[in-house]
Amino acid sequence: MSHASESKAMRLNIRVSEHQKDVLVRAASYRNTTVSSFVLEQAYEEAQAILADQSQFVVDERRWKKICKALDAPPKDVPALRELLTRPGVFDD
C-alpha cells in the first residue's frame, strides 16, 4: 500500500461473524500480514477502484472517434431549450 508510511491516527471498527473472521485471519496469514493490514489494504484498493470507475472510463478506438465526432459537431437547435435558457429564472428578480 502506498500510504503505509502515513500516520494512522484514526480508528475503524467493524463487526464480523466468526466465519468471516476465520476467513480474514487465514487470508492474512497467507499474505504474511496482520488481519488489520490485510483488511485495510484490500478495502483501500477496492475503494480506489470504485472511485476511479466514477471518474475514468476506457473506450475502444471506434467508440472514441464517435465520441469526438459528436463533441466536434455543431450544437443542435432546440427552440424550447433556447426559450428556457433565455427566460428569466426564479432567482433573477
What structural class is derived from the secondary structure elements?
Answer: mainly alpha
Distance between the termini: 54 Å
Q: Given the structure, what is the number of helices?
A: 4
How many domains, in number, for the residues? 1
Q: What's the number of extended β-strand segments?
A: 0
Q: Write the H/E string, N to C.
A: HHHH
Q: Runs with pLDDT <50, length 5+?
A: none
Query: How much is the radius of gyration in Å?
Result: 25 Å
As a percent range, the share of helical residues equals 55-70%
Major β-sheet profile = none
Strand content: under 5%
Account of the protein in words:
The structure is a single chain. This protein has 93 residues and is mainly alpha-helical. It has one domain (18-86). 58% of the residues lie in helices and 0% in strands. The chain has helices at residues 18-30, 35-55, 61-72, 79-86. The mean pLDDT is 90.
Descriptive tags:
93 residues, mainly alpha, elongated, single chain, 58% helix, 4 helices
In short:
The chain has helices spanning 18-30, 35-55, 61-72, 79-86. The chain is mainly alpha-helical.
